[in-house]
């Protein structure tokens, strides 16, 4: 018997079908529709509208033939029409042609979305929409001013007249304080200007020019009001230079405006006073070539590294406590006391100098600047802020959100208080509830400022005697924060 040696491992399973060949994709050859679409694109790129129109007609003819043979259309007709429309020089004509194209029912959704954006990008249409928004907002405010008090008085009709009258008064105040040209109308003005810049000879140009002139004057008045208002606030904060800038800008919008002229005059006076004070601080008496004899020891002590400033200043004060150099001697004495670690004595002497008339000497203003600086005299700022926090908490319980006064409505001071007095009086009715909620409410800003100044004071006196009361605000804030977190977890 003959045996044949061979591999007993079974053969591998063939991949794919044994009777079908793999499909090989052949190169796509452009047909007549593709070539015609390329002609449309080429003509549009060189702005040859006649050639692009002829190519578009050929594409439409191809679609007619395909439809007659029940074949699928090329899908190029609508895109080609939009491409031909884009060759028009006037954007207005292009938007009109786009709107006509949007009337087609079988547009591709992606193409329709893009054409919608093109049709809506019309300055006149956008300006009309902004004006409609302005009218709706104006009407809505007037309607709410009447509907809100009536709705609140359904359960108590006797309060309806009072609430309605108050709402109308507040609405009148808001209208008075509003900008002459609201935001939506400013946007419409920008669209009108854009339209007139591109189409100065348009049919509607004369009417638009009149509206632009009217709105432009209101825009200048709006800017004038804003800058005068900002200048007044800067002047109250002691910033005459900034107030002068605002006044000058207000006059650039409305020349010879009375309020802006008055603001500029007041700012110039305060700025001149500041400059005079700075000049006086560094100036010397031209008739005095040398220091008075009694001041020489103090001058030498201040200039020499080993000079005994404290002894020289005390000797000068003992010689003439109310003399012309008493302020300088007191300031020097306060400085060396502070450097020696006796800050309480230093701030007491600075405070004594700060209370004097600034016209009688320069050192009173220097001492006042240091004494009133909350970052330098942190303990005084801490004490004052803590007292203010106690007062603010009491006012908050009594008046609620009006504890720091009525909100600014851009009205004259007394008129603004007259409008807000009724709301503040009505807020008193919620005092019992606020008193109950006080332990769980968020701390007022004055409490956080008191904690900041207390921490600042502690950092300044790390190795010196500390006042325990400076630690209390931070402990209270930490305790209140822990109580609030515990209350929130319980509520959840």
Describe this entry's structure for a reader.
The chain is mainly α and 492 residues long. The chain contains 21 helices and no strands. The protein has helices at 32-45, 49-68, 77-85, 91-102, 109-120, 123-152, 160-177, 183-198, 205-236, 240-253, 258-282, 296-303, 309-319, 326-339, 343-354, 363-371, 378-399, 413-427, 431-437, 445-460, 472-491. It is elongated and about 120 Å long. It starts with 31 loop residues before the first helix and ends with a helix. Residues 1-6 and 486-492 have low confidence and may be disordered.
Features:
disordered N terminus, mainly alpha, 492 residues
Topology:
Elements: H1 32-45, H2 49-68, H3 77-85, H4 91-102, H5 109-120, H6 123-152, H7 160-177, H8 183-198, H9 205-236, H10 240-253, H11 258-282, H12 296-303, H13 309-319, H14 326-339, H15 343-354, H16 363-371, H17 378-399, H18 413-427, H19 431-437, H20 445-460, H21 472-491
Provide a brief overview of the structure.
By secondary structure, the chain is mainly alpha-helical. The chain is built from 21 helices and no strands. It is elongated.
